[in-house]
Every structure is written in C-alpha cells, then in structure tokens.
Amino acid sequence: MEFSERQARIVEIVKSSSPITGEQIAAKLDLTRATLRPDLTILTMAGILDARPRVGYFLKEQKESSPIMEQLRLLRVGDFKSLPISVRENISIYDAIVTMFTQNVGTLTVVGENQNLKGMVSRKDLLKSALGKTDLQQVPVSIIMTRMPNIIMTTADEPILDAARKLTLHQIDSLPVVEAFIDEKGEERYEVIGRFTKTNVAKIFVQIGTLGKR
Amino acid sequence: MEFSERQARIVEIVKSSSPITGEQIAAKLDLTRATLRPDLTILTMAGILDARPRVGYFLKEQKESSPIMEQLRLLRVGDFKSLPISVRENISIYDAIVTMFTQNVGTLTVVGENQNLKGMVSRKDLLKSALGKTDLQQVPVSIIMTRMPNIIMTTADEPILDAARKLTLHQIDSLPVVEAFIDEKGEERYEVIGRFTKTNVAKIFVQIGTLGKR
C-alpha cells in the first residue's frame, strides 16, 4: 500500500473521528475541500474509504481487497504489449533515428542473434548525441545505448500495474518484454518478444474508463 | 461507449446465450480462453458483464453506470497536472534541447507575453531537425514548433479520462493545460497553466492500483 503523506493523514483522521465530512477533514488539514478532492476520490476508488451522503467518510471494512484492484491485477503485460522494433548494434545513430521515424516509435531495442537483448535506445539518448559533435552517420548506436544489465525489463505474465510502476519509478517511456533463455555457453539471455510503453498504459486507462460510459 | 470489434462480439454472444462460460465464448469466436481474458476482464471491470463462478458470464443490469467509472470521471486534469516548462519563440533549437535536458521534460510550451500559448515542441520535433542540415544554434524553435490552431489542449476542469483519450488519439505525449482569455485586441488567447502527460496518466493508474493492495 503506497500512500502519499497527505493520504496517510486523511486515513488517520477518518480512523479517529468517523463519520467525518470532507469539509471537516479539510479543516483539520488546513486545506480547502477542492484541494482534498483527488485524494478522497482515489482513497474511495481504492476501497480504503467509503462515503455516505449527508453522513461523511468512514473506513471501509477490509473483508477483501477492492474489486477494482482484484480485476486490475488480472491484466497482464502479455495481453497488451506492442510489437518490438529492433535494430542491430552496428547500425549508425543516424539510421537509428530514421528507423524511429519510419516505425513511429519512441524507443528501439538493440538485439543480437535470436533477438537476444543487448541494449535500449530512446529519443532522449539520440537527442543527446545529436547535441554533441558526434558524427551521426559514423558512430554506431552501441556507443550510446543503455546496456545490459542496466535495462529495466518486463515479462508477458507481469501484471500491468507492476510494469506501469517500473515506467514511472525509473522515468522511462518503454520496457522491453522478454523471455529468459540459456545460451550455448550456459549464460542467461533475454529474447525480446514485445515492448510495453506509457502509451499502452494510457490506452488501457482510456479503454477501462470509456467502456463504462453510456 | 467504445468497444473493440471483438468486445462488441463478446457482448452480442453473452446477450444471446447467457449464462455462458469463458470457454464457450472462446469456442464461438474460434479463439483460446487466454486470448479472450483481457477483453472479459475489461468488460467486467467496466460493469458491462458480470460473472458467477461455475455459472458463467451474463449482461449486467444497467441500473446505473459502473461505480469505477463514476469515480474515475470525478478526477480532473487540474488535480494532477505538472508545471509547464516554457520557452520564447526566438530561442534556438539548440537551447530548446538543452532546456529539455536541464528541466527533464519531453515537451516544451512556446509562449509569448502573459504565458500566451504560441506553440509546442516535442523531442520528436527536435530530433527531426537534428537529422537535417539545420544549424541548431542559429535556427529559432518557432520554425519547427507545432503552432496554434493545431495544438491539442486541455483545461483544469476536463476529466482526466478525456485528456488521456486526446493523448492516445492524437499520438502525443503532452497536452498544455490552458485558461482562455481575451487579449486587448479582443482575440481569444490561451494562458498556459500546466502540462498533462502520459506520465501523469501512468502515475494515476499506478496510484489507484497500488492503494487497494494490502
């Protein structure tokens, strides 16, 4: 359970003096009701608080986790991932940028034999190299890519919530979706089978949100 | 209500022969149960279908819209927006790229007097100009920015669901959050008061998802 500090204080207040109205909670925190609205909404959606009209907020009995959450955790990366767009590590930075535009993606996976993950290149990486004196046509993408083992990855069976948390926590736009395998030398490798991006998260959010409206 | 074609077919099947199990729906569509899982989960979360163990899926009575949706629609852009990072239109492309790195953002708003919105510049725009023969130090950002009236905007009171749909529909990473005003010549202008990005959407998604877990 990850509370913001303010959300934790709201839960404490409701615990000690429920039922309590939004206005009363706001007064105790020296904030306006409007400022508190998103926190109260999120705590209610997550099944932590419940609200009765004209009565106020109270802590929800914790018989089970909220149904929204149970459902959300059933959604897996493999069900929503996009196709990976991969290049080889000897491709020039220039050609990597061109590939990004022709394929309309923001991140490329750099792979070896058998789609074996070697690196990741983002628009940010490419832009940084364009800023310098680098000869974009000559320098290979391997020079600027993020390499193993510094790559944040996901797998097809990871819940999308956990993958989305990796994206926000590490401030990246895209995760490679991989399957681990052991190569002929007995070393662990990762075959790239997809990509999971902030765009995928936004689409899932919109899809869940839009279906209910009628 | 925006169904994918497959989701619409699932609803039709459930309508004509409920209760029906996931396996039976999959058989009618010539798909595996695993392939169907995300669609069934989303339709259930959105309050369109309901499922009873050992019985199967049936259409949910539509007394009201789903509680998830009602709650989601209460969340507004103004409660979750980030601070805008703005530059003037005579700044060089080079300095715009540097600003992006120092401020750690993916999109800049280009403004005139009174934070009046003139344009938007994304990493993609800057990368495209870096690919050409453009002198990044000499050419102003106004040459490559997306201009009014082609800018997709949002406002503080827009539901985040609608703003998220704009992001996915128009394939952009960031929306300027604006307030309309009338300038001294009587023309409508837009003051930039924030930015709303795919990162904001991913954070909201993670926050809602994580709070319920215990």
UniProtKB/TrEMBL annotation, chains A, B:
Keyword Repeat appears in the UniProt entry: yes
Annotated CBS domain residues: 80-136, 145-211
InterPro entries named in the record: CBS_dom, CBS_dom_sf, CBS_domain-containing, HTH_11, UCP026546_HTH-CBS, WH-like_DNA-bd_sf, WH_DNA-bd_sf
Domain of life according to the entry: Bacteria
The entry's keywords: CBS domain, Repeat
SMART domains: CBS
CDD domains found in the cross-reference section: CBS_pair_CcpN
PANTHER family per record: CBS DOMAIN-CONTAINING PROTEIN CBSX2, CHLOROPLASTIC, TRANSCRIPTIONAL REPRESSOR CCPN
Record protein name field: Putative signal-transduction protein containing cAMP-binding and CBS domains
